[in-house]
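G.,

No rush on this.
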Amino acid sequence: MSVSDSVASLPDLRVEASEVAGLPAYVLHDTASDLHSTWVPAAGMLGASLVHAGEELLWQGEGVGAYARARTFMGIPFLHPWANRLAGFGYRVAGRSVSLDPASPLLLQDDHGLPIHGVLTGRAWSVAELGADANRARLVATLDFDGPELLTAFPFPHRLRMEIQLGGGMLEVGVTVTPTGEDPVPISFGFHPYLQIPRVPRSQWEVDFPVERHLLMDSQQIPTGETETVAAISGAIGDRHWDDGYDRLRGRRFALRGGGRTIAVEFTEGYRVAQIFVPPGQEYICVEPMTAAPNALDGPDDALRWATPGRPYSASFRIVT
């Protein structure tokens, strides 16, 4: 990664233009907290790195190049217009029946052959603002969801605005959906942060997840519509693993501890569902902020939130170190 001259700076907070895997990128710096975050607009606004005190807190997978080419996940990917799975290659929402092409290069399929995690990985976002003030470094990017290819998969034109802020030892990520047509836009997006604690085996990490109501799933990890009340999740991970959704929470702060370090994911606005993904055989965990449950686009319309003309929808979360 080569870094050019700073494009926006204050003594402790700055944004630098950079390059990752041959793609333009931006690095936000919070020097006072020794926290640094890299974002790649040309790879669907991928959060590629979060380095604290010299250690990488995001699992790197096969790297940014593989993510941009083949949707090999890593870092902090943005999942839009749906997070998690759909039950099939079609859905019905707002009175519209949408058919998805299984051969479309826009789509990623899970192990069951179902479409998962939206369509925006390879889309280049436009950088609208770079700056720093006394409290944070900031990157704002936008994307118009209005091309024929995109609207075939999700026929609701809108503009996305993502605001990345770094300061005070925390990274905050906000998204606003603004309709650009006459129709409301159903909201079902999310993020997939891959978190790691360097130098400590995952089995020794301890978690505090303030979950309350668990979504029961079928054999393909699609909600059945049934739920169960559960206790909050806490303690060492050990040999436990999860791929579970929760649509009622006891709190908004999901904490991960190990090796004297604490990393917390906090849902600050607009996120109603948490997906906990801790697969066997890996050294990461994911606390996924989601605006709706899996397959919500094919559920009842009144279970969704909507962005309407004149009333955008916003959601945000932060990672605190």
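When you get to it, here's the other one too:
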Amino acid sequence: MQQFDLLVSYDIETTTRAGQRRMRKICKLCKNYGQRVQYSIYACTVNRAQFEQLEAALLDVLDPNLDSLHLYTLPGGRNQCVRTYGLDTYLDFEDTLIV
């Protein structure tokens, strides 16, 4: 199954306990599919089924009246679509790892 790169960006209202719970749930979901590259941005490599599962799960948690969610697919992958300056903590788990 073909995989593609995805950026997940969100802004969750956190002035209430319910909002704080939603943010924790959103973070946990995103961590299951990728890695955090900014406070509210995750880089994920997913296949079509995983994308649909993640999208459905995020939309189930999101309060559309208070929160926002953006899903960006990166044609050509992260290396061709993203320019990074300064500290970059992204790890390519498909690349060779030296321990």
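The mean pLDDT is 86. The longest strand covers residues 3-11.

Enjoy the weekend,
O.
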